[in-house]
Amino acid sequence: MLALVCAAALLTALPDHDREGGRRCTARTVSSWSADRGRTLAFARYGDDASRADDWTGGDGTHSVRLPDGRVLWLFSDTYLGQVHAPPDPAGEPHAWRDASAPFVRNSAVVSGRSGVLERTLPTPLFPDPAPGQWRWPVAARVEPRSPGSAERVLRVLLWTRATGTGPWIYGVPAATEVATLSLSDLRVESVVTVLDQRAVPDPGRRVLFGTTAVGRGGWTYVFGGDDGQRAVRRAYVARVPRGRLAEPGAWRYWDGARWTRTPRPRPVLGDGERRGVGSAFTVVRDGGTYVLFTMAAGTAGLSRVTSYWACAPTGPWHGPAKGFEAPLPRDGPVRSGVAAYNPQAHPELGGGGGRLLLSYDVNWLDATPGTAQAQVSRNVSLYRPRFVALRLARPR
User: Fold this and answer.
1) CB contact set of 362 (below 8 Å; sequence gap of 6+)
2) How close are the terminal C-alpha atoms of the chain, in Å?
3) Distance, CA of 146 to CA of 152 (rounded, Å)
4) Where are the domains of the chain?
5) How far is C-alpha 110 from the geometric centre of its chain's CA atoms?
6) Which candidate, 180, 197, 349, 213, places its Cα nearest to that of 281?
7) 189 DSSP β-pair partners
């Protein structure tokens, strides 16, 4: 009972406003950008390294978190393991390739050392399937106290649980948001807790999964999520959790359009289902007193164009869409016409600050049949690896 009273007191004591105290909020847009070829090639070299036979050779859903000792943990969703063969591929094209029988897992993690060099793949899958026909995709991750006020820190990783589906859900039916707790010393998974189960929502398109991105501010962690609607753009939502309590379902508060509430019936903070909204994944960062959101553009432009929005609070109002950039795709014609960019993700701990930002995006083959897409990305392994750009944010001119 004392623990419950203390927890309630903590929630009451935290400031309830969402705007940046003492920091000026001004419009933000992308003023310049360039491809970060060095970081993109680092993942290519690691994936192509034939000296290891059981590690990462390609994956999507790219997220990262810097650990207290200076290492960086890179998290991926669907992942290929095994070995990569030098060009040419079986069709005679000048691409490195992998066998169709290469191991495939639903999630993985790669560790880079303090120097930034990618060193090893953790045992896979890092997060086991919760049940037959279900799997976990890791999304945002945060280092936080094990509990509020604790000197011990742990790694918390948000997970999307999905289940086998058909029709518009060939890439999985959204099921739940979970939080995994990992020890920092050995990156061992200690526990996985469900914080929001959406399986009771009849329409999968209305189910909301949280964790595509998370932003810390003023004792709170703001966790953004999206639905699985089948329109040109989707809607964005936000919840917040006191720092140190991500793994406690009862500590989550959801924005219902007017206030923060314990009831998990969130209202969208962005999205009209047509021109304004987000893609299947998006990212949010703070630049001074301004929140900036990056997502793929609406409609066919979203196959390669990253656009942005800005706001003075996580709950909005969000202004945009604003100027973004065209994500560089493979240069050879036949390949370029068959691929798309998706899942833009910011890596603020690696971007340098001062309006500079590192952003990754994933590339995949466009096909409604998963088997065909898998065959294409195995014939050319460069198609299923993260690519990076360096951005500079500034006020619009």
Assistant:
1) 60, 61, 62, 341, 342, 343, 384, 386, 387
2) 56
3) 6
4) 22-394
5) 15
6) 213
7) 182
- Residue 251 tokens read as 């500590």
Q: 3-class DSSP state for residue 340?
A: strand
Residue 351, token pair as written in the block = 């971007």
Residue type, 317: P
Residue type, 385: R
What tokens appear for 45 in the block?
């070299």
Encoded tokens for 223: 């966790």
Taking the C-alpha atoms of residue 382 and residue 367, their distance in angstroms, rounded to an integer, is 17
CA distance 397 to 389: 22
Q: Which H or E element spans position 255?
A: strand 253-255
What span, in angstroms and rounded, lies between the C-alpha atoms of 197 and 222?
19
Give the architecture-level CATH label for domain 22-394: 5 Propeller (2.115)
The amino acid at 20 = E
Cβ pair 59, 78 in contact under 8 A: yes
Angle at 62 between CA 56 and CA 64, to 5 degrees: 100
Residue 115 and residue 184: Cα distance in Å, rounded?
A: 18
| Cα 154 to Cα 146, 148, 180, 185, 297, distances in angstroms | 6, 12, 10, 9, 35
What percent helix, strand, coil does the chain show, rounded to 5?
A: 15, 40, 45
- Spatial contact of 119 and 111, defined as CB atoms under 8 Å apart: yes
pTM score of the predicted model = 0.93
pLDDT in tens, 280-304: 999 999 999 999 999 999 877 778 9
Pair 228, 250: CB distance under 8 Å: no
The answer to whether the beta carbons of residues 316 and 269 sit under 8 Å apart is yes
Quick one: which H or E segment has residue 48? helix 37-48
Type of residue numbered 84: V
44 sits in the region (left: phi over 0; alpha: psi -120 to 50; else beta) called alpha
- Each residue of 81-138: pLDDT tens digit? 999 999 999 989 999 999 989 999 999 999 999 999 999 999 999 999 999 999 999 9
